[in-house]
Specification:
single chain; 19 helices; three-stranded antiparallel β-sheet; five-stranded antiparallel β-sheet; flat; about 700 residues
C-alpha cells in the first residue's frame, strides 16, 4: 500500500474567495473567458485530426463513412474489417512486450557517479580496535565542498544505513579483505525508490491505464497519460467493534486520458513546447461534488454550479462513437481543466497570491478548473520543476504535430480498396450464380407474372412455334476481384509494417515455410513494433518515471529513498526473446567463475535480469543488496562455527609431522615377499600340544 504524501498546501497558492457577489462575478468571468478562449482555439485547430480519427474508428468498427456513395448496381454492403485485425494485433504485441516481466516497465538505478551518497562503502571488523581516522573524502574547509545544513559526512555517505552502521569505521570503496562487509548505499536508496514508485503505480492501477492509452495509439495515432496527481483515496477499515471507518489518504495517481478529451496548444509539436492544454471532463453530480474533497476546490462555487443544473453539450463526433444510440439527453456537466501559462499582469489583476521568490517572473504556470461559466479551482502549478502533467506518445512520430500517425490512418486507402474489390466480387458472384432470362412475350399468354421460382409454369399461346424463355449465364470474374483484394491486403501489410503472418495468417510460402525462415520474418516484422516501444519509452514511461521521482522528492521526506538516482524506462529491453536473453545472461554469469574476472562482475544485476528473462518478479525471488549482505554474514558465521566444532583428525601426533598441520609425507613402502612376516600366503606356524 502506498504511503500517504503531504498535501500540496505548502506548494500551491489558491485564489481567495471573494465576499462580494458582484466582485466575484466580475472576477470569474475574466478567468473563465481566458480558459474558454484558448479551449476554442485548440478545438478549432484540432478539427482535421478529429475527422481522420472518425474515419479510423469507422474502419475499425466496420461502418461506412457518409462520404462513401453506392450506385444502384452495387447491392452488397459488405465491410472487411482488416483495420480491426491489425489494430488489435499491434495492441497485443505492444502490451505483450511492455508487460512481459509481469510489472510496470520502470526501474530506478544510481547514476554512474552518484553525488550526495556513496556508491560503495565497507567496514572491516578486524580493524575495529585500530587507531586513527580516515581522511574526509569531502575535502577541507574553504574548498567549496561544504556540507548541507543538518548533514554530516556519515549521513551523506550512508543515507539510511547511517543508523545501522553507527559507531563503525566505515570507509569509501569496496573492501578487499576477507572479513570486509560491503554495502552500496546508492543502490539501496535506488531500489527503495523503485519499490515506492511501483507501489504507487499499483495503487493507481497504472497497468490498466497504460493499456487503455496503448490501445488508442494504433487506432488514433496518439496515446495520452496524465500524472502523477495527488488525490484522496479511501481505504476500507473497521474498528474493534466492527464499525466501518474508512481511512482517507492523499496518494499520487496516474490516469488514461482519451485523445478526444485533450486539447493541447495548437502551435506546439511536443508536450514540452505547449504553452497550455485543456482537458474536457464529463461528470455527473456525484463526481462534481466529489471535487469538494480535493485541495483548493471552491466548495461554495461547486454547489452553486450543481444547483444550476447539467450543462453538457455533445460534440459532433460523440454520436459516431456511441454508434448512434437513441438520444435521451445528457445529464452531465462539462468541466474544463486548464494547465498553462498566465502573464503576471493578469495574475496580479485577479489577485492571485504569488510567493515572494516568484514575484519577479514575467509569467507563471496555473491550474484553473471551470464549469457552467464559473471557476471552481484556481491555483499556481504546484509541481517542481514546473510541468504539464500530460504525456502524449505517438504510434508513428510526426515531427510537425503533437499528434502522431496511427496504423489505421496508414491503411485508410487500402481498407477502401479492399472493401470495393470485395463488394464487386460478391455482386459478381450473385449475378453469375443465377441465370438471366430473356423472354419472348409474343409466345406467352398476356398478363402472366414474370417472377421466377422452382416449378414455375408459363402458358404459351397459339401461333408460330418458337422458344419463349432464353437463359443467359453471366460471366464470373469474382476470382479476378479477389486477386485484387489480396493485392490490396499486401499493400496494407506494407503500409502498416505489420505483415499478416505476424498475427496468425496461414499460407506463408517461400522462406517462411521453414522454422529459421519464419524466425527471420518475425524478427523483421518486429522492427516496426520496436520503434513504437521506443516511442513509449521516450515520450511516456521515461518522463512519467522521472516525474514520480520528482514528486516523491518534493512531497516525501523519507531519506531512505533520496539520492542521486535516475529513472529508466524498460520497455525496449523486453524486445529480445526471453529465451535468448536468459541464455546469454547465464553464459555471462559463468564468466564470474574465473577468480580474475569475478571482481568485475555485477552479480546482483545479472541475477535480477535472469529472473526478468524468466518472467519472474526479481523483487520476490532475489534478495536486495542489504538482504544479500546479511545472508552472506550469516553463512560466514555458520561456516566458522562448523569449523570450530569439528573434532580433531587422527590420534597421537605423527613424528614426521610434529606440528599437526598435516603436511607430512607418506612413504611408499615395500610389500612383503613370500616367506617374510606379514605375507598372507605363508604356511601357518605349528602349535604346541596341550600339556597333559
Amino acid at each position: 500500500m502506498a504511503e500517504p504524501i503531504q498535501e500540496l498546501s505548502s506548494e500551491s497558492v489558491a485564489l481567495d474567495d471573494v465576499t462580494e457577489v458582484g466582485d466575484e462575478k466580475l472576477y470569474v468571468s475574466r478567468l473563465v473567458s481566458l480558459v474558454e478562449e484558448r479551449f476554442s482555439k485548440a478545438e478549432t485547430s484540432r478539427r482535421p485530426y478529429e475527422e481522420q480519427w472518425l474515419r479510423n474508428y469507422k474502419n475499425y468498427r466496420g461502418v461506412y463513412d457518409d462520404a462513401v456513395k453506392f450506385t444502384e448496381a452495387e447491392k452488397s454492403r459488405v465491410f472487411i474489417k482488416v483495420t480491426k485485425t491489425k489494430v488489435l494485433a499491434a495492441y497485443g504485441q505492444i502490451t505483450d512486450v511492455l508487460f512481459s516481466a509481469g510489472r510496470f516497465p520502470l526501474s530506478v538505478d544510481p547514476t554512474i557517479l552518484p553525488e550526495g551518497i556513496s556508491g560503495d562503502v565497507h567496514y572491516d571488523p578486524a580493524d575495529a580496535d585500530k587507531e586513527g581516522e580516515e581522511a574526509s573524502p569531502y575535502g577541507f574547509a574553504g574548498d567549496g565542498k561544504d556540507l548541507p545544513a543538518g548533514a554530516t559526512e556519515t549521513s551523506l555517505k550512508l543515507g539510511e544505513l547511517e543508523a545501522k552502521l553507527e559507531g563503525k569505521d566505515v570507509k569509501e570503496g569496496v573492501g578487499t579483505s576477507p572479513t570486509s562487509v560491503n554495502y552500496n548505499p546508492a543502490m539501496i536508496a535506488a531500489k527503495r525508490m523503485e519499490k515506492k514508485i511501483h507501489d504507487q503505480l499499483e495503487e493507481s492501477e497504472a497497468t490498466k491505464q497504460l493499456r487503455s492509452a496503448v490501445f488508442e495509439m494504433p487506432l488514433f495515432g496518439t496515446g495520452i497519460m496524465k500524472g502523477p496527481m495527488a488525490v484522496d483515496k479511501e481505504y476500507p477499515d473497521w474498528d474493534e467493534d466492527g464499525t466501518y471507518k474508512p481511512t482517507t489518504k492523499t496518494v499520487p495517481t496516474v490516469s488514461y486520458v482519451s485523445v478526444w478529451d485533450w486539447y493541447p496548444d495548437p502551435d506546439a509539436a511536443t508536450v514540452s513546447d505547449c504553452q497550455y492544454s485543456v482537458q474536457r471532463h464529463k461528470m455527473n453530480r456525484s463526481q462534481l461534488r466529489e471535487l469538494k474533497r480535493r485541495p483548493f476546490f471552491r466548495k461554495d462555487v461547486i454547489e452553486d454550479v450543481v444547483t444550476q443544473g447539467e450543462s453538457y453539450t455533445k460534440k459532433y463526433w460523440e454520436d459516431d462513437l456511441k454508434d448512434y444510440q437513441l438520444d435521451t439527453g445528457v445529464d452531465r456537466f462539462e468541466v474544463l481543466e486548464y494547465w498553462g501559462v498566465m502573464d503576471m499582469t493578469t495574475i496580479e489583476e485577479h489577485d492571485i497570491e504569488v510567493p515572494e521568490e516568484l514575484a519577479s517572473a514575467d509569467e507563471l504556470q496555473v491550474n484553473i478548473w471551470t464549469c457552467n461559466g464559473r471557476a471552481i479551482r484556481s491555483v499556481l502549478n504546484p509541481f517542481k520543476p514546473v510541468r504539464l502533467p500530460y504525456y502524449a506518445v505517438p504510434y508513428e512520430h510526426n515531427p510537425y504535430s503533437i499528434f502522431g500517425i496511427g496504423l489505421a490512418e496508414n491503411m485508410d486507402d487500402t481498407q477502401t480498396l479492399m472493401n470495393g474489390f470485395m463488394r464487386m466480387a460478391v455482386d459478381n458472384a450473385v449475378l453469375s450464380g443465377n441465370l438471366i432470362f430473356e423472354v419472348d412475350e409474343t409466345n406467352l399468354v398476356p398478363g402472366q407474372d414474370m417472377q421466377l421460382y422452382p416449378g414455375k409454369v408459363f402458358r404459351r399461346q397459339g401461333g408460330a412455334p418458337g422458344q419463349a424463355l432464353f437463359g443467359t449465364k453471366y460471366p464470373n470474374v469474382s476470382g479476378e476481384n479477389l486477386q485484387l483484394f489480396d493485392k490490396a491486403r499486401q499493400l496494407a501489410d506494407e503500409s502498416t509494417g505489420l505483415p499478416s503472418f505476424s498475427h496468425g495468417q496461414t499460407g506463408v510460402t517461400g522462406v517462411g515455410r521453414t522454422s529459421s525462415g519464419i524466425s527471420m520474418l518475425m524478427n523483421a516484422a518486429a522492427g516496426g513494433i520496436k520503434t513504437v516501444i521506443k516511442n513509449i519509452d521516450d515520450y511516456m514511461l521515461g518522463p512519467m518515471g522521472k516525474n514520480f521521482f520528482h514528486f516523491n522528492m518534493q512531497f516525501d521526506f523519507d531519506k531512505s529513498i533520496r539520492g542521486d538516482l535516475e529513472v529508466k524506462a524498460r520497455g525496449t529491453e523486453s524486445l529480445m526473446a526471453n529465451e535468448v536473453r536468459s541464455q546469454r545472461l547465464m553464459q555471462f554469469l559463468q564468466v564470474g567463475a574465473n577468480p580474475n574476472l569475478a571482481p568485475w562482475m555485477k552479480s546482483q544485476y545479472i541475477i535480477r535480469e535472469i529472473a526478468k528473462s524468466m518472467e519472474l518478479d526479481p523483487d520476490k525471488v532475489t534478495n536486495n543488496i542489504e538482504e544479500a549482505q546479511e545472508q552472506a554474514m550469516i553463512m560466514q558465521k555458520q561456516q566458522a562455527e562448523a569449523q570450530a566444532a569439528a573434532p580433531p583428525q587422527g590420534g597421537a601426533p605423527n613424528p614426521s609431522d610434529p606440528t599437526g598441520a598435516g603436511n607430512a609425507n607418506i612413504g611408499v613402502g615395500m610389500a612383503p615377499v613370500p616367506g617374510e612376516e606379514g605375507f598372507s600366503g605363508n604356511e601357518p606356524a605349528p602349535t604346541e600340544p596341550p600339556m597333559q
